[in-house]
Structures are given as structure tokens and as C-alpha cells.
């Protein structure tokens, strides 16, 4: 970006496309202890992994050992392949990444959201007293910032504004509250990168005069809408490039403008993709500034644990999800981390939920020492490969957006693909699509569920309206023979809000048979016929389809479609 040009062209050249993996010689040492104490080779690992997959029938007896790479690899929603093992050959074609200069996660940021100013003030003071170090404050013209921030030491606790409309007005009101106080490092007036040009310019000048940051590029917002990691990265870079262009046209040099920007990203419970995403964001930001002809400016990152990954049912599992997400964000180098309280999907988090969220970060930092080392995942072959591939996916998305593509269309495709994975339960959600508990009592929170569409939304809708009738479970053969399939069917039905009864048949409209294949061959058809004669109108078999059954359920079934059919039969 040349001074005075009013525009940059950061996508010229672009990142290199991920190179095809070159075949690695079978004698390559993987630094694993072999049976004789010597370094194991790739062939040794393939042989051992293939033996396990043959035993579980995931590969055939005649398949070569090296087929394990295809069987154990998975592809992300961005089309990035994640292999089962990191090997040196994966990084041969990669340039050095842009690494964080200091450990991440030391800024524990809490979110303040709502209209009750006294309550917000009470929450802010309690969180800061409990160890939070900065505030993320949603505010509009009507928010009384003096009341909300009463007692907050603004020279010690940074405040990042999230203005709901009129960012210039909110910024000015905050600066009036700040007065002569020297603002804490990290304070940000929070103009959204999507704000109008004149609003961005006005807030930037206010920020420069006050010595604070001005703009937040909020990638987590499109994550909430269903975006993939690559789409979130690409959109954030496109938004940041727009900010640089707008401010440069107003006379703010690109390097100075870059220092006004903070990036916000979602952290999910997919550990390695989240680590790689934080690292890839730095790679992309460095590449953008390089293409602009601007000196490097460290990217300021704020990570927020994902709201869509959470569940309203069995919400306690959200603690596990958000802990993994916060761990990953910190390892990835995020400067500030906000852990969403486990009860956020139920309504307004209470004091317990907020305290648990704070303490999750305290445990990670003070007891696990996650933030003691800068870039601890750096140098790991698998992480470096994934970082590069996510950066390449983000760069392609940036180029598409620069070319006029609509991000909403790309997100819609991603949402459809993710919904399909959730329906097939290849993307399981513990407590919702897997191991649901129909007898649970949910905590009550005021305000009701939040508006974000969670990944398990279709299953939550089924649980919200539980089936009025139950399915009768008829087991065939000894306990050892039918337990696995009976448990599978019971859990699957519960994921759709359908209860199961067993024992003596009492006229239920839908029945499910569970047993071994031999039992189905021997007495399955007769049992199904007897149940139909007794009043059953639909017979399901747990396992492979049978001619004498109306439906079947097994691993790989479209769970959402199966549950919908079953509920219709029950109704």
C-alpha cells in the first residue's frame, strides 16, 4: 500500500497452494521406540496401525498397510486434510510462520452484556475481584457508562467496547468517563470493522488522541453464523484490509492504522484446528502487511470460546468444551481469552456460571501453566502443516471476497455440510446427539436461550418437544448378545426426545428389536409378526435392515431423518 494511494492490493501473489505430499521412504525414522529399542520406521507404524484397523474391520485383510493414512485422515469443512501422524515431510515446503512474541492467555477478559447498569457494575467488580483482568463491554447510546464502570480502575483494567450502533457516540461517552485517567494498555474503543467509513475515521482519530486502540475485527460474529475456520480467517483479513484502506484515505498511515486494530476469533473444542487457527491468523496478518509494504505489526488477538459448539442440554459438558477451547487458544498465542459460561445457552449466566468460567482460565494459567511458553506447539510437524493449510484456506477466501464473492453463500454451504455431519453423528455432541439424559433437570436462567444457532439446533428442537409416547424395546437372546445394540438404540432414540420401555409389551405403536444377527435369523421375523398382531404398527430393527422390519438403525444412519420418521409414527 503506497502512501496516498487510497487502496492496497494485498492479494497479489498470495500464499502458495499446499503442495502435494511427496512419498516418504519406508525407512524414514519417526523417532518412535521400536520393539528392539531402535527408532521405528514409517513402515513399522503403518504395520502396527493396520493390524488394529483389520481387527476392527475398518480395512480388509488384503488391503496394504499404507491404506491407514486414508482411513485415519479426516477432512475439515475447509477441505483441509488432517492426517493421523505428523511426519517431517509435511513441512519440507513450508516457510517459517509468524509466531507470537510472548505467551498467550494472560488477559482474562469477561463479557458484560445487558441493560441493567447496576447489575453490570456488580458483575464487573465481582469478576475483576475474582481475577479477571479486562472487560468486554456491550454498550449503546443509552448505556450509563459512569454507572457501569463505577469503581473500575480504568488505568489497570482495559475496557474493550462493543458498541451497539453509533460507535462514535459510545466512544466519546467512554472517553468522557475516562477523563484524565491514563487508560490501561489494551483499551479499545471497539468500532466494528463493518462500521461506516466516516465512523471508522472518527473513532480512529479519537483513539489516536487518547492513546488507545480503535477497531475490532470480530471474526467470531461470522463463526456464530456458521462459518468455517478458513472463512472466519479470510473474512477477518478482508475486513482488516478495508479498515486499512479507509484510514489511509483519511491520512492515517497503514502502519499506524494496523496498530489500532484488534482481532477477535472463536475458539472451539477442536484442539489442534483452534491452535492452528490462531497461528494462521498471524501468518495472514503478516502477509497482508507485507503486501501493503508496511512494517510488521504484531496482531492483537482476543479469543472467545465458541457459542455454537455449546449445548442447552447436559450443559455441564460445556465446561469441558470451553476448557479445551481456552487451552487451545492460549497455546495458539491469543493475547486475551473469554470463556463463555457453561450456562450461556440457557439464558443469562448466573454468578456461579461466571465464576466457573473465570476459574477455568485460572486453572489453565496458574496450575497447568499453559501460558508459560510462547508458541509451545510451534515446530510440531502436524501443527505447522495445519497452520499453513488453514492460512492457505483463509487466503483463498480473502481472494474470493476481494473478487466480489458473497461470504453468506460460502457460509450457507458450510452450514449445510456441518448439519449433515451432525445428523449422521460423525460430528457427535455429547449429551445431545450422544449419551442424552431424558431425565435431566436443566438449571433455570432468566432471559431464555440466546439467539445463536448452535450446531446441535435440530436435535435441541426435538428435545424441546419430547415425544408423547415411548418405543417398546424387545431384546432377543442373552444379555451379552443384545446389550450393545439395545444400548445403541436407546441412546439414539433419546437423542430425539423419545423414551424407551421394556419388559412386557403394552400396546406401543412402535417397537424396536435388539439382538445379535443370529437371533434375527432365528426368531426375528416371528417376533416382529407377533408384535404386529399384538398392536405394533411399526417395527424397527437395531442393526442392518431386514425385510420383515419397517426401519433400521445402526452406525452411520442419518439420525435426524430416522428420529423424525419414528416420531411421526409415534404421533
UniProtKB/TrEMBL annotation:
Low complexity compositional bias, start-end: 11-38
Chain segments annotated as coiled-coil in the UniProt record: none
One Pfam family this sequence matches: MM_CoA_mutase
A GO term, aspect molecular function: methylmalonyl-CoA mutase activity
GO cellular component annotations of the record: cytoplasm
Biological process (GO), any one: propionate metabolic process, methylmalonyl pathway
Residues in Methylmalonyl-CoA mutase alpha/beta chain catalytic domain copies: 212-415
Start and end residues of each stretch annotated as Disordered: 1-38
PANTHER family: METHYLMALONYL-COA MUTASE, MITOCHONDRIAL (PTHR48101:SF4), METHYLMALONYL-COA MUTASE, MITOCHONDRIAL-RELATED (PTHR48101)
Quaternary structure, from the entry: Heterodimer of an alpha and a beta chain.
Protein name per its UniProtKB record: Methylmalonyl-CoA mutase
Amino acid at each position: 500500500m503506497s502512501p496516498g494511494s487510497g487502496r492496497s492490493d494485498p492479494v497479489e501473489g498470495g500464499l502458495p497452494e499446499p503442495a502435494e505430499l511427496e512419498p516418504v521412504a519406508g525407512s524414514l525414522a519417526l523417532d518412535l521406540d521400536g520393539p528392539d529399542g531402535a527408532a521405528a520406521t514409517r513402515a513399522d507404524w503403518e504395520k502396527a496401525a493396520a493390524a488394529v484397523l483389520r481387527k476392527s474391520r475398518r480395512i480388509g485383510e488384503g488391503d496394504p498397510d499404507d491404506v491407514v493414512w486414508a482411513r485415519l485422515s479426516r477432512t475439515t469443512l475447509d477441505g483441509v486434510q488432517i492426517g493421523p501422524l505428523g511426519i517431517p515431510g509435511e513441512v519440507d515446503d513450508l516457510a517459517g510462520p509468524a509466531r507470537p512474541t510472548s505467551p498467550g492467555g494472560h488477559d482474562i477478559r469477561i463479557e458484560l452484556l445487558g441493560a441493567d447498569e447496576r447489575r453490570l457494575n456488580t458483575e464487573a467488580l465481582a469478576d475483576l475481584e475474582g481475577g479477571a483482568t479486562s472487560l468486554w463491554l456491550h454498550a449503546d447510546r443509552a448505556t450509563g457508562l459512569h454507572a457501569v464502570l463505577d469503581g473500575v480502575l480504568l488505568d489497570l483494567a482495559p475496557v474493550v467496547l462493543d458498541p451497539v450502533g453509533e460507535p462514535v457516540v459510545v466512544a466519546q461517552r467512554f472517553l468522557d468517563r475516562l477523563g484524565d485517567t491514563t487508560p490501561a494498555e489494551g483499551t479499545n474503543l471497539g468500532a466494528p470493522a463493518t462500521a461506516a467509513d466516516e465512523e471508522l475515521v472518527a473513532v480512529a482519530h479519537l483513539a489516536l488522541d487518547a492513546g488507545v486502540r480503535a477497531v475490532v475485527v470480530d471474526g467470531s460474529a461470522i463463526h456464530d453464523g456458521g462459518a468455517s475456520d478458513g472463512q472466519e480467517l479470510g473474512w477477518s483479513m478482508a475486513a482488516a484490509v478495508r479498515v486499512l484502506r479507509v484510514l489511509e484515505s483519511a491520512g492515517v498511515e497503514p502502519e499506524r492504522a494496523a496498530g489500532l486494530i484488534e482481532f477477535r476469533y472463536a475458539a472451539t473444542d477442536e484442539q489442534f484446528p483452534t491452535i492452528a487457527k490462531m497461528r494462521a491468523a498471524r501468518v495472514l496478518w503478516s502477509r497482508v502487511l507485507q503486501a501493503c509494504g508496511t512494517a510488521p505489526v504484531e496482531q492483537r488477538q482476543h479469543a472467545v470460546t465458541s457459542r455454537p459448539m455449546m449445548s442447552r442440554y447436559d450443559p455441564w459438558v460445556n465446561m469441558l468444551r470451553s476448557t479445551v477451547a481456552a487451552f487451545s487458544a492460549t497455546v495458539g498465542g491469543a493475547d486475551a481469552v473469554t470463556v463463555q459460561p457453561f450456562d450461556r445457552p440457557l439464558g443469562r449466566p448466573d454468578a456461579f456460571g461466571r465464576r466457573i468460567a473465570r476459574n477455568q482460565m485460572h486453572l489453565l494459567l496458574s496450575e497447568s501453566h499453559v501460558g508459560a511458553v510462547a508458541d509451545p506447539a510451534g515446530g510440531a510437524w502436524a501443527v505447522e502443516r495445519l497452520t499453513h493449510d488453514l492460512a492457505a484456506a483463509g487466503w483463498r477466501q480473502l481472494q474470493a471476497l476481494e473478487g466480489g464473492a458473497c461470504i453468506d453463500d460460502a457460509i450457507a454451504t458450510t452450514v449445510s455440510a456441518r448439519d449433515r455431519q451432525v445428523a449422521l453423528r460423525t460430528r457427535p455432541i455429547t449429551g445431545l446427539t450422544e449419551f442424552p439424559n431424558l431425565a435431566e433437570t436443566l438449571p433455570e436462567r432468566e432471559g431464555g436461550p440466546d439467539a445463536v444457532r448452535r450446531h446441535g439446533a435440530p436435535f435441541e428442537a426435538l428435545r424441546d418437544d419430547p415425544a408423547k409416547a415411548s418405543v417398546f424395546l424387545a431384546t432377543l437372546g442373552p444379555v451379552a448378545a443384545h446389550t450393545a445394540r439395545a444400548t445403541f438404540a436407546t441412546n439414539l432414540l433419546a437423542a430425539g426426545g423419545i423414551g424407551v420401555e421394556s419388559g412386557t409389551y403394552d400396546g406401543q405403536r412402535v417397537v424396536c428389536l435388539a439382538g445379535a444377527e443370529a437371533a434375527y435369523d432365528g426368531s426375528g421375523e416371528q417376533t416382529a409378526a407377533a408384535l404386529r398382531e399384538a398392536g405394533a404398527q411399526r417395527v424397527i430393527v437395531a442393526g442392518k435392515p431386514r425385510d420383515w422390519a419397517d426401519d433400521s438403525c445402526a452406525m452411520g444412519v442419518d439420525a435426524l431423518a430416522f428420529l423424525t420418521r419414528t416420531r411421526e409414527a409415534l404421533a
